[in-house]
Amino acid sequence: MTVVVNELTSIIGESRVIVCCGPGGVGKTTTAAALAVEGARRGRRTCVVTIDPARRLADALGLDSLTNTPRRVDGPWGGELWALMLDTKSTFDDAITRYARDENQARSILGSQLYRNVRDAISGTQEYMAVEKLYQLVEEGGFDLIVVDTPPTRRAIDFLDAPRHLTLFLGNPAIRMSLRPSRAYFKIITFAAQAPLKIVANIVGAETLVDTMDFLRAFEGMEDGIYERAKRIGELFAEPTTAFLLVVTPRDEAINEGRFFTARLHESDIRVQALVINRLHPHFDTPSAATPRILDSSMRGRRAQAFADLNANWSELRIVARREERTVADLAAQVAPASVARVPLLDGDVHDLDEVQIVADHLFGLSSRTNASRTIKSPGGTLAPARCPIC
Question: What pTM value is reported for the model?
Answer without folding.
Answer: 0.75
